[in-house]
Design goal:
The structure holds 2 protein chains of 2 kinds.
Chain A (H helix, E strand, L loop, with lengths): L16 H6 L14 E7 L5 E7 L1 H4 L4 E6 L10 H4 L17 E2 L5 E7 L2 H10 L1 E6 L6 H4 L23 H7 L2 E9 L11 E8 L2 E6 L4 H12 L6 E4 L15 H13 L3 E4 L14 E9 L5 E12 L12 H4 L6 E9 L13 H19 L3 H7 L4 E2 L4 E3 L4 H12 L11 E3 L2 E13 L5 E8 L4 E4 L9 H13 L6 E4 L16 H25 L14 E4 L2 E4 L2 E7 H8 L3 E8 L3 H6 E2 L1 E13 L4 E12 L6 H20 L5 E2 L4 E2 L17 E6 L23 H13 L15
Parallel strand pairs in A: 1-11, 9-10, 13-14, 16-26, 20-21, 28-31
Antiparallel strand pairs in A: 1-5, 2-4, 2-6, 3-5, 7-12, 8-9, 8-11, 12-13, 15-16, 17-18, 18-27, 19-20, 19-25, 22-23, 23-24, 27-28, 29-30
Helix pairs in contact in A: 7-8, 10-11, 10-18, 13-14, 14-15, 17-18
Chain B lengths: L4 E4 L3 H9 L4 E4 L5 H6 L7 E4 L8 E3 L5 E4 L4 H6 L1 H6 L1 H8 L4 H6 L2 H6 L50 H7 L3 E6 L2 E6 H4 L18 E7 L8 E6 L10 E10 L2 E10 L6 E2 L1 H7 L6 H11 L11 H19 L12
Parallel strand pairs in B: 1-3, 2-3
Antiparallel strand pairs in B: 4-5, 5-8, 6-7, 6-8, 9-10, 10-11, 11-12
Helix pairs in contact in B: 5-8, 10-11, 11-12
The chains are: A alpha+beta, B alpha+beta.
The complex binds flavin-adenine dinucleotide and iron/sulfur cluster (SF4).
């Protein structure tokens, strides 16, 4: 029976909100130490080649400069690639800062200037003179396309394309209706508000406390220990607050290496903060060249699906995303061929960015489906219903749950889709053309092994602890809600401690798995505390709960009550007193059930509807309305959940219309490396966004039945907008972002 | 950022003398552009002369019936000044089309005139750039040039002047008041900014020791027949791909006077008097507007990524003139284009 007093399921404001808006919440670059020195990175001007000379004399002469680290004087660090491979590293040789004279990408760190003040370090950094011998570089994926290869080593945790099924070529030939198109999008950089930064506090005796901008404190901890040959216990990494990351903090970035290197060498605390332009020198959403071929019968039923992708990676790592599998998963089709290849260009290794792979692949697939609907002459929603996948044909599994039909129905109804005139260019509002488009979204519902600890004190204070992070998603809040409900304490009494490598083990925060995984771990730990408390309560002489099992009691208002007879209870304080303890504590670990994951596929789904208004003559597009109906299992906190989906949608608007990291292929360098020229949506770009959570019950995906919401909001959004633009203008744009020039 | 000496000027003479004494000195007003450029090591002044205490914050009527705007009047104050809103709404609109409220609160009239290009390469000392380091070359010509100029370019530089305010000032025929060691000068706005030629590192005709003291606006008589139309890659807070300031004086159904200036297309606010002349003496109408646009763009030249600006500018000119003729100036708050 749902508990009407429960925090879970109720819109609950962020428990960390006051700390954030008052500035009490501190981020990686906001920690101080009495002996703090400041490091500023010097970045390479060329994309490939070698350093022939590096002159640090002028920099060293600046008053306050302590040291300039270069490849020539870098302290020794681990030798093997293996030591540099973090939890989410793709196959290959991870980048090693200041390793040698070789330059592998533009903006590569070539020196670290450390000084008594940030100002001195910054000035000195501008005086470091580097001479290079440039070698030919290539940063244009089109040029490297013909060298594309299937990566030999697969990246752990990323599904390679499934084997082809049926006879895709034959079926395509036989199909009366065809869609055949090339799709592409621009490279994007994550650009979280908070720049990447590490403050390394030298605690003496080789012990370090590191405040790092990262999505997993234990990932950084292991990396630092392994690269610098330290004992993991001597390295504590804290990321209590993260000012956005979107995947850019999954892997430890080079400022961490540099700050730790300097701290160990100088035996003092060091902070390194990257500048906004340096935020364009590492991970990014890779470029991808996609081709989709759909064959269908006259009713629009898919007969053949082919999706081929060449994705960019660096020269040193085989970064891989699942871009194409969605095309075999999302719709029913018996003849499918999906291929994914890599081509190396001279940039840093790309990395996961909000719904990696899905954002890319689904945007192409969902535009292709819109093209198909038009060719067949049926409504785009109807086309998707006709091809509805009842099971996962890629892996031949049932879904744990899939309320996508309801997403289409409820989303279409809220949007008013039935009033759509199917003909392109048929709808107007004054001078502007109006377009309505839609798309499907899909993302994996992951669940990861995670540990958590719960500790309830006799006074009623509950502390929850897990190394998990909150990158702005609301983890603090949902963990507090879950714990408060489980132990019947007011949420104000719950202290959530996360973002600290010394806490119970947790994976990086990524893949939208944290709510499910950390949440289940917290629930398990609280469950264990409940058991212990009940045991103590029952041990009281003449206990009113003497014969009660855990299923017979409720924890409410600091009491353990007999369900159905709340007058029979033991207070938590009395139970602890009886046991002679001041607090009760338990740590639990949850992990996915292998059998379930062998039998079932777990996905979050959504249906996105978008309205655009286009001033055709001038190419100016306004996204005036978006409705996104999401089926993501149980919603723990409708308020933070909605924020996550909103954020994803806004990023989808950015992908559709604005975001583009521009490479100068002659220089091999990203050029618009600042917020004035790398455009993300501003308030004026965002109008009505309606997020609907479609009821979905899932008792298999994980113990909590939640599927995660951090990423689903972006998947499909760009396609819905591109489809709306087509509907408005009759122009089919298959290359993102759709800037004004593309409509002229 | 380099180390520099900081001086606060209490009088105009002090400011001028301090600049004259050091060829690597820079004035600082709102600092919204200079400080950014210093952080990027693009500007490395040895001496920074703070002019914000100088008495240049008034907007005063002139004998001719216009206004003299002090160089330190913040962009926000200027845009919301009652006299500006009543008599020079085109200028108010141009200012409000630019930057963000926070920036406009800090930015000054003089600083806005002298803001530097937004060319990606100019901002990145890791790349060559003739404007930043004369003689190193212009990578934009063969590189990323989406935001670059289509008019008045040279083989040495194809950068644009990024200001919105200045486009409004060009259409309103403002005169810049400056003072240096050689005394006071008045420079018509059209002669203030330069084309790049073979000296793209020199943006304006202002001398090193000269302080901009004010901007004079002649009387204006366009009523509601004006507009500032700015087209950009997002609906707010982006520099113009193309912008158009247009003002018409219409008497008895005929254009008696026309002013037309473009932003985002050249190294300076681009006013075209020949195009204006084509409009005068004719009733306002799309055909005439198209002829004017043709005239403005006659010598336009595009590069790999910015050729679209030629067509975009043509359409923007026509639309802006339509807005001006109809007396329905573009709103800067409602992003729907009229
Ligand atoms: C993110 C961003 C977005 C922006 N978007 C826009 C936009 O869309 N449209 C737009 O028009 N502008 C935009 N701007 C630019 C903004 O308008 C300018 O930065 C501002 O007007 C500069 O004024 P300031 O007083 O801050 O100048 P400062 O930075 O103080 O000075 C700029 C230059 O002018 C010189 N100077 C200043 N005052 C005088 C004087 N009285 N005499 C002689 N020399 C002087 C300085 O020496 C310096 O070289 C944007 C700026 C930023 C940072
Ligand atoms: S266009 Fe001008 S400012 Fe830009 S790189 Fe070329 S010379 Fe430099």
């Amino acid at each position: 029976m749902p508990n009407p007093e429960a925090y879970v399921g109720r819109p609950t404001s962020r428990v960390d909100g006051p700390a954030k808006v008052t500035g009490a919440a501190r981020y990686a670059a906001e920690y101080f130490a009495p002996d703090l020195a400041y490091g500023v990175v010097v970045s390479s001007a060329i994309a490939r080649g070698r350093i022939t000379a590096i002159d640090t004399a002028a920099a060293l002469a600046v008053p306050g400069v302590i040291h300039v680290f270069t490849h020539e004087n870098r302290p020794r660090t681990a030798w093997l690639d293996y030591n540099y491979r973090d939890e989410v590293a793709p196959p290959g040789s991870p980048f090693r800062p200041l390793h040698g004279p070789e330059i592998q990408f533009s903006g590569q760190p070539v020196a670290l200037v450390v000084a008594e003040s940030f100002e001195a370090a910054g000035y000195a950094a501008s005086l470091v003179k580097v001479e290079y011998e440039a070698a030919g570089h290539v940063t244009d994926l089109e040029v490297k396309r013909h060298e594309a290869y299937v990566p030999k080593k697969k990246r752990a945790g990323v599904k390679p394309p499934p084997e082809p099924r049926g006879d895709p070529e034959g079926a395509f030939g036989a199909a009366p209706v065809h869609v055949d198109g090339d799709y592409t999008h621009a490279i994007e950089h994550h650009n979280p508000m908070e720049p990447h930064a590490s403050t390394v506090v030298w605690e003496g005796d080789g012990k370090l406390t590191i405040y790092d901008k990262v999505q997993g404190s234990q990932n950084s901890q292991k990396y630092v220990a392994s690269v610098f040959g330290l004992n993991a216990d001597d390295v504590r990494v804290v990321n209590a607050y993260v000012g956005g990351a979107f995947g850019s903090g999954l892997r430890p970035q080079y400022q961490l290496f540099l700050a730790v290197m300097a701290a160990l060498e100088l035996k003092r605390s060091v902070r390194v903060v990257l500048t906004r332009d340096q935020m364009f020198t590492f991970t990014h959403r890779p470029h991808a060249l996609q081709t989709i071929r759909l064959g269908a019968d006259e009713e629009g039923r898919l007969m053949s699906v082919r999706h081929d992708v060449v994705q960019s990676t660096s020269q040193f790592e085989d970064y891989q995303e699942n871009i194409v599998n969605w095309s075999g998963l999302m719709y029913r089709c018996d003849n499918v061929a999906l291929t994914h290849k890599l081509a190396q260009i001279d940039t840093y290794t790309p990395g996961d960015m909000r719904a990696p792979g899905a954002t890319t692949g689904v945007f192409a697939l969902e535009i292709a489906m819109d093209e198909l609907a038009e060719r067949v002459g049926i409504d785009p929603v109807e086309l998707r219903l006709r091809n509805y996948a009842e099971k996962d044909q890629d892996e031949n599994k049932e879904f744990t749950s899939k309320e996508l039909r309801e997403c289409y129905r409820i989303g279409a109804e809220r949007f008013g889709w039935s009033r759509r005139n199917p003909a392109p260019r048929s709808m107007r509002d004054g001078r502007e053309l109006v377009g309505w488009g839609m798309a499907t979204g899909c993302w994996e519902a992951y669940f990861q092994k995670t540990s958590a600890r719960a500790r309830l004190a006799a006074g009623g204070e509950l502390e929850i602890a897990t190394a998990s992070s909150d990158i702005g998603t609301g983890t603090y809040t949902i963990l507090a809600q879950l714990a408060a409900d489980d132990l019947g304490v007011p949420i104000e009494r719950v202290a959530v401690r996360i973002g600290d490598s010394s806490l119970p083990a947790s994976p990086i925060e990524g893949g939208s798995w944290t709510a499910a995984s950390a949440g289940a771990a917290v629930q398990a730990a609280c469950g264990a505390v409940r058991e212990k408390l009940l045991g103590l309560a029952r041990s009281i002489d003449g206990s009113p709960l003497a014969n009660a099992g855990i299923e017979h009691v409720a924890f409410r208002d600091g009491r353990i009550e007999l369900a159905g007879d709340p007058e029979r209870f033991v207070t938590l304080a009395d139970a602890m007193q009886a046991g002679g303890v001041e607090h009760v504590e338990a740590e639990e670990t949850v992990s996915p059930d292998i059998l379930t994951s062998m039998r079932y596929s777990m996905y979050t789904h959504s249906a996105i509807f978008a309205e655009v208004k286009v001033d055709e003559e001038l190419g100016i597009i306004r996204v005036t309305r978006i409705v996104n109906a999401v089926a993501a299992g149980r919603i723990l906190n409708p308020k933070t959940a909605r924020s996550q989906v909103l954020g994803g949608i806004v990023m989808g608007v950015g992908m559709a219309l604005e975001e583009e990291s521009m490479l100068d292929h002659n220089l091999g360098r990203f050029m618009n490396h600042n917020f004035a020229e790398y455009h993300v949506p501003v308030n004026a770009d965002i109008h009505d966004i309606d997020v609907i959570f479609v009821p979905e019950h899932d008792d298999k995906a994980n113990p909590l039945g939640v599927k995660g919401l951090g990423e689903i909001g972006i998947v499909g959004t760009a396609a819905a907008i591109a489809n709306a633009i087509y509907h408005a203008t009759g122009k089919r744009i298959r290359a993102l972002p759709i800037t004004p020039d593309k409509l002229l | 950022m380099n180390n520099f000496e900081y001086l606060r000027a209490e009088t105009l003479d002090q400011a001028v003398a301090a600049a004259a004494a050091n060829p690597a000195a820079k004035f600082i007003a709102g600092g919204t552009n200079l400080v950014d450029l210093m952080k990027y090591n693009v500007e490395r002044p040895e001496r920074v002369i703070d002019i914000t205490r100088l008495p240049l914050r008034e907007i005063a009527p002139t004998e001719e019936g216009g206004l003299l705007i002090g160089a330190l009047v913040p962009n926000s104050d200027l845009a919301y000044d009652e006299r500006i809103q009543a008599c020079y709404p085109l200028l108010a609109s141009a200012i409000l089309a630019g930057a963000s409220p926070q920036l406009r609160n800090s930015a000054t009239t003089g600083g806005n005139l002298l803001q530097r290009t937004r060319c990606y390469y100019f901002y990145d000392p890791g790349t060559p750039c003739n404007k930043r380091e004369p003689g190193t070359g212009c990578p934009a010509i063969e590189g990323q040039n989406r935001i670059h100029a289509i008019l008045g370019t040279s083989e040495h530089c194809i950068a644009t002047h990024p200001s919105d305010m200045c486009v409004g000032l060009a259409a309103l025929e403002a005169v810049i008041h400056v003072q240096g060691q050689g005394g006071a000068r008045r420079i018509p706005i059209g002669e203030f900014h330069r084309l790049p030629g073979d000296t793209p590192h020199i943006d304006t005709t202002l001398r090193h020791d000269e302080v901009v003291t004010g901007v004079e606006l002649p009387p204006s008589d366009y009523g509601s027949n004006h507009t500032y139309l700015k087209l950009r890659d997002r609906l707010s807070y982006a520099f113009a791909l193309v912008s158009v300031a247009a003002a018409l004086k219409i008497e008895d159904g005929v254009v008696a006077k026309a002013r037309l200036a473009l932003g985002g297309v050249a190294h300076k606010p681009w006013r075209d008097t020949a195009a204006e002349a084509l409009l005068v003496g004719n009733p306002p109408g799309r055909e005439r507007f198209a002829a004017a646009a043709e005239e403005v763009l006659r010598d336009a030249r595009g590069y790999a990524h910015n050729s679209f600006k030629i067509e975009l500018a043509r359409r923007a000119i026509i639309r802006a003139l339509e807005q001006a003729a109809a007396g329905t100036p573009q709103s800067q708050t409602d992003k729907r284009i009229r």
